[in-house]
């Protein structure tokens, strides 16, 4: 999947690290009202969760495109370009268009003290409204109850991806607290679909759905025979949510055929998610697993692909993540890993982890040179920001 070229937005978006996370709806509500309410000019669906929400959005977007609908896609984070966050069908927003929208929203952003994510959300709403999309697919950035995407007033169909322990500093220290925040997207009259969840999470979602007047349905992972464009066994749960959302949209009158659903699921692509690439002609597997649940899922997948085979890892993990838990989930006996710094981020170092087989490397390039020879494909993981940093050096796999 060809990614858009990088775009410099430093003069229009303050660094996320400077503002930090500042959840809330009032600022963006006021800015959107002052900007002419672009969010009121198209319906949307919304997806929350810890891991897989971007994949659900991608699969659903592919279904809508296969059905001939003009669908907007708003996802995060990006690998190499801010333009990856906003698309209509398979067309990324252009760099010039994104800069123009952000410039238009600058005065309102400053007046209402919008966060960078809120400013990007306003630009996305404006882009979709101007293009007269039939429908927009919105991925929650963080949480749900107070996420900027929840400002959209017309979200009749909702999706919930797997919920696990991540962003505890913002969402709460327990699964139940995190689930409550993510269930904040539920609202009266909406129909929601969730992948299987831990029992404590399922109970919270059921309670919140009942309290908020939202219908909640549970979906099981799709069978192995169903062709999927996204690799990984966990994508069968994500695809099941996307399919259920599409089926509900069809029940509500949207022209989405069974054939379009199958075609979309088979063609969906989302870079950096269990993807094969090459570095200097050597094969490497990449995945953005950046929290313990995602790391556990990746390890299970690798065990199925090559049971008992030791792996070599290149890992970069942001400091605010649970680095020790992520590395322990990824590593198996006989594995070796090299920890590298992520550009622009505070990162974990091997010396702090005290986990056997884990070493520090001063740079990603030096670590890459250590990955071969290996018993089977080395893996790069730990952060999508690391994948974005390395993306220009990686190539598509050799054909055949």
How would you characterize this protein structure?
Helix content is 38%, strand content 14%. The protein contains 15 helices and 14 strands.
Task: Outline the secondary-structure elements.
Layout: H1 16-19, H2 26-34, E1 44-48, H3 53-66, E2 71-74, E3 86-88, E4 91-92, H4 95-111, H5 116-131, E5 135-139, E6 157-160, H6 168-171, H7 175-182, E7 191-194, H8 199-212, E8 215-218, H9 235-251, H10 258-267, E9 275-279, E10 282-286, H11 292-305, E11 312-315, H12 323-330, E12 336-339, H13 350-353, E13 358-360, H14 364-370, E14 379-381, H15 384-390
Parallel strand pairs: 1-5, 1-6, 2-5, 6-7, 7-8, 10-14, 11-12, 11-14, 12-13
Antiparallel strand pairs: 2-3, 3-4, 9-10
Helix pairs in contact: 3-9, 3-10, 4-5, 7-8, 11-12
| Order of the strands making up the biggest sheet | 4-3-2-5-1-6-7-8
| H and E string | HHEHEEEHHEEHHEHEHHEEHEHEHEHEH
Based on helices, strands and strand pairing, what is the structural class?
alpha/beta
Shape descriptor reads: globular
Number of strand segments: 14
**Largest beta-sheet details:** 8 strands, mixed
Helix content: 25-40%
The number of helical elements comes to 15
In short:
38% of the residues lie in helices and 14% in strands.
Task: Please name the defining characteristics of this protein.
alpha/beta, eight-stranded mixed sheet, six-stranded mixed sheet
């Amino acid at each position: 999947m060809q990614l858009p070229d990088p775009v410099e937005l430093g003069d229009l978006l303050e660094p996320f690290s400077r503002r930090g996370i500042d959840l809330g709806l009032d600022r963006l509500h006021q800015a959107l009202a002052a900007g002419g309410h672009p969010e009121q000019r198209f319906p949307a669906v919304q997806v929350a969760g810890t891991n897989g929400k971007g994949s659900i959005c991608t699969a659903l977007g592919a279904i809508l495109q296969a059905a001939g609908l003009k669908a907007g896609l708003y996802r995060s984070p990006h690998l190499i370009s801010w333009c990856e966050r906003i698309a209509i069908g398979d067309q990324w927003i252009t760099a010039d268009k994104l800069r123009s929208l952000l410039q238009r929203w600058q005065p309102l952003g400053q007046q209402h003290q919008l966060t960078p994510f809120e400013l990007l959300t306003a630009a996305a709403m404006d882009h979709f409204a101007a293009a007269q999309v039939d429908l927009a697919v919105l991925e929650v950035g963080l949480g749900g109850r107070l996420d900027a995407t929840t400002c959209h007033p017309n979200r009749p169909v909702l999706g919930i991806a797997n919920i696990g322990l991540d962003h505890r500093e913002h969402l709460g220290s327990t699964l139940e607290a995190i689930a409550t925040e993510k269930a904040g997207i539920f609202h009266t009259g909406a129909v929601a679909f969730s992948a299987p969840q831990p029992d404590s999470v399922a109970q919270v979602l059921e309670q919140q759905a009942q309290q908020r007047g939202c219908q909640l349905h549970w979906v099981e992972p799709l069978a192995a025979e169903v062709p999927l464009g996204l690799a990984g066994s966990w994508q069968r749960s994500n695809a099941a949510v996307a399919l259920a959302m599409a089926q509900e949209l069809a029940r509500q009158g949207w022209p989405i055929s069974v054939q379009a659903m199958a075609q979309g699921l088979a063609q969906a692509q989302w870079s950096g998610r269990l993807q094969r690439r090459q570095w200097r002609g050597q094969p490497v597997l990449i995945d953005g697993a950046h929290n313990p649940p995602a790391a556990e899922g990746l390890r299970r997948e690798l065990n199925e692909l090559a049971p008992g085979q030791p792996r070599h890892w290149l890992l970069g993990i942001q400091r605010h993540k649970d680095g020790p838990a992520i590395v322990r989930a990824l590593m198996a006996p006989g594995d070796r890993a090299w920890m590298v710094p992520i550009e622009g981020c505070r990162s974990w170092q091997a010396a702090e982890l005290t986990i056997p087989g884990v070493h520090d490397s001063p740079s990603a390039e030096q670590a890459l040179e250590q990955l071969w020879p290996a018993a089977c494909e080395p893996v790069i993981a730990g952060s999508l920001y690391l994948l974005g940093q390395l993306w220009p050096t990686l190539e598509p796999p050799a054909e055949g």
